[in-house]
Specification:
mainly alpha; two-stranded antiparallel sheet; elongated
């Protein structure tokens, strides 16, 4: 996945919301790439995020299809007048600028809701006029999708997201009915069916657990009514967004905005920290009961410092040195820069606090074991 974001809001003096992460308005370590890795490796529920992203891609396909259709109407207006397609032309001209929201449909403004309703209504109307058959739509599912073609998208629009689910590089599909369009009408149908058969039907490849009523309604809309407009998935998309916001996103913020280590690294720090501290205690008591000189006991500083530092890192889920140099671990021994300003400031403060605690405890223990009177047994 491309880690770069198309645009960022001005620096915020707070933690980001899930909407901002999904809209690619944040930077590492709280960007969409890091959230995807967290959902895959720690939350073990990446199918929900993939479902949400694929539905967003489907919506983007619909918007780009309509945008391309509008452009072709503007270019070919004389021909359209001759063929009597005034109704479709009027609907497209009065649809307005299409929005591309990353949040749930419940957060849309009234104007954005009207635009989305107009988009879905236009696609339903066009689908009804195309005499769609289930056999042709199932065959179109076999053709790979590519959101971008040889021509660039209109200025200010982003191409649809390449699916997180597919490992293969998508290729272009051109419909014989619309050879000049980057996104063909059959692509929209194939995209809707792909989502249904991959995520929603019982026993599907990557089934996500949604209320049975939602799954039934979507299945009926797609398979019986032949719909493929974005409104088909609105309820499921909103349910998935709220589930991620409630169950996964708080843990993601704790892991990435308050810490900079992943579970395998934390486990290793716990193991090596306990080993180092056990060795330090064994050496410390041995030197005390051998009545060793204080200069010799000073070597205890090394194992005590290592042990206390590693155990403090495990306790706070934070490596203070890595945080101070601006690094965060997103997979085991793979690091990214701290580019989100507020998160970097927060981690720097926590790193200084962890260092202070580590030094305080370390000095207390080292002084105790170095300066306690020795007694040879």
């Amino acid at each position: 996945m491309d880690r770069s974001s198309p645009a960022f809001d001005p620096p915020r003096d707070r933690l980001p919301t899930l909407y901002e992460v999904l809209a690619r308005k944040t930077k590492p370590p709280v960007d969409l790439f890091s959230f995807y890795i967290y959902m895959r490796d720690q939350q073990r529920s990446v199918d929900y995020l993939d479902f949400w992203l694929d539905v967003s891609q489907h919506t983007s396909l619909c918007r780009h299809y309509v945008s391309e259709l509008r452009r072709s109407i503007l270019v070919e207006t004389p021909d359209l007048e001759k063929t009597g397609s005034k109704r479709s032309s009027y609907a497209l001209d009065h649809m307005g600028e299409l929005n591309d929201p990353a949040g749930p449909s419940t957060d849309l403004t009234s104007d954005e809701k009207v635009k989305d309703q107009n988009l879905s209504a236009f696609l339903r109307q066009e689908n009804g006029n195309s005499n769609h058959s289930p056999q042709s739509s199932l065959a179109s599912q076999q053709s790979p999708l590519r959101p971008s073609g040889d021509r660039p998208f209109p200025a200010g629009e982003r191409p649809p997201r390449p699916s997180f689910m597919s490992r293969n590089s998508p290729t272009r599909t051109d419909s014989g009915n619309s050879p000049a369009h980057t996104v063909a009408r059959a692509d929209i149908r194939a995209s809707a069916e792909k989502i249904l058969y991959t995520y929603l039907l019982p026993g599907s490849e990557r089934e996500v657990m949604l209320p049975q009523g939602i799954v039934h309604d979507i299945t009926k809309d797609i398979e019986e009514e032949g719909r493929d407009d974005p409104e088909v998935f609105d309820t499921a998309k909103d349910y998935t967004f709220q589930a991620m916001e409630r169950d996964a996103f708080p843990g993601f913020l704790r892991a990435k905005a308050l810490g900079n280590l992943v579970p395998p690294s934390l486990f290793l720090r716990l193991v090596f920290g306990l080993l180092a501290l056990t060795a330090a205690l064994w050496v410390g008591f041995t030197l005390i009961f051998l009545d060793a000189r204080k200069r010799t006991r000073a070597w205890e500083i090394l194992p005590f410092t290592i042990g206390i530092y590693l155990l403090s890192s495990h306790q706070y889920h934070l490596d203070p040195i890595l945080a101070l140099v601006g690094l965060s671990e997103y997979t085991f021994f793979s690091f990214s820069r701290l580019e989100e300003p507020y998160v970097r400031k927060l981690l720097t403060k926590r790193a200084l606090m962890v260092l202070f605690v580590t030094i305080l405890v370390g000095v207390a223990v080292i002084v105790l074991f170095i300066f306690v009177p020795g007694h040879r047994l």
